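[step 3/7] inverse_fold.run input=structure_tokens len=84
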């Protein structure tokens, strides 16, 4: 049976756009911190993979982003990333 769903709506909440700059700054700082271990492009790809994998567990938002960053840092450094 075909789904009667024909349209999907998105709410472009202005708080998301306002906070995008902080998200980008955090990603850049994350890449700087791990520059000795992995190239920025590869790091961003690995982080995106972790975020997608974890979406069902943590949902969208800062919690999922931060936990995915921790997981990615541990992964790309083979558990050698410093705690600070």
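[step 3/7] decode complete -> sequence:
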């Amino acid at each position: 049976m075909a789904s009667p769903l024909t349209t999907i709506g998105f709410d472009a909440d202005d708080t998301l756009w306002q906070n995008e700059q902080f998200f980008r700054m955090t990603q850049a700082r994350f890449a700087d911190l791990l520059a000795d271990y992995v190239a920025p492009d590869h790091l961003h790809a690995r982080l995106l993979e972790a975020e997608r994998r974890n979406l069902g567990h943590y949902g969208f938002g800062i919690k999922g982003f931060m936990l995915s960053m921790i997981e990615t840092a541990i992964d790309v450094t083979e558990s050698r990333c410093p705690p600070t």
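[step 4/7] annotate
The CA atoms of residues 48 and 84 lie 22 Å apart.
The chain has a mean pLDDT of 88.
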